[in-house]
């Protein structure tokens, strides 16, 4: 299982905006991510709303990454092209 951190970002990220901007990518395999809350394991067994994957998000302010459920991303975020 791959672990993502501020120094180890996945490839293929897109930019999104709501009140602030962030880079995000849909990860379709279980993964670990180092967040402000500690290292979280993200998989169909550990999160609600997996829906074929989970979004890994890196905020533009340089703070630690976090995650979005696919349904949250669809309802709340606008892709910047």
Number of helices: 1
* Class based on secondary structure composition and strand pairing: mainly beta
Strand order of the largest sheet: 7-6-3-2-8
Please report the total strand number as a whole number.
8
Shape descriptor reads: globular
Mean pLDDT: 91
Order of helices and strands: EEEEEEEHE
**Poorly predicted residue ranges:** none
In angstroms, what is the radius of gyration?
12 Å
Provide a quick synopsis of the model.
It contains 1 helix and 8 strands. By secondary structure, the protein is mainly β. The strands form 2 sheets. It has a 5-stranded antiparallel β-sheet with strand order 7-6-3-2-8. Strands 1-4-5 form a 3-stranded mixed β-sheet, with no helix packed on it.
Describe this structure as you would to a colleague:
By secondary structure, the chain is mainly β. Helix content is 9%, strand content 44%. The protein contains one helix and eight strands. The chain has one helix at residues 70-76; strands at 2-4, 14-17, 21-27, 31-35, 38-42, 54-59, 66-68, 78-80. The protein has a five-stranded antiparallel β-sheet. It is globular. The chain starts with a strand and ends with a strand. The mean pLDDT is 91.
Produce the secondary structure layout.
Elements: E1 2-4, E2 14-17, E3 21-27, E4 31-35, E5 38-42, E6 54-59, E7 66-68, H1 70-76, E8 78-80
Parallel strand pairs: 1-4
Antiparallel strand pairs: 2-3, 2-8, 3-6, 4-5, 6-7
List its traits.
five-stranded antiparallel sheet; 1 helix; 81 residues; mainly beta
């Amino acid at each position: 299982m791959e672990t993502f951190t501020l120094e180890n970002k996945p490839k293929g990220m897109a930019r999104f905006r709501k009140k602030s901007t962030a880079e995000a990518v849909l990860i379709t395999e279980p993964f670990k991510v180092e967040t402000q809350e500690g290292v979280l394991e993200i998989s169909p067994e550990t999160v609600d709303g997996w829906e074929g994957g989970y979004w890994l998000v890196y905020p533009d302010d340089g703070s630690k990454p976090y995650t979005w459920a696919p349904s949250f991303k669809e309802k709340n975020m606008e892709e910047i092209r």
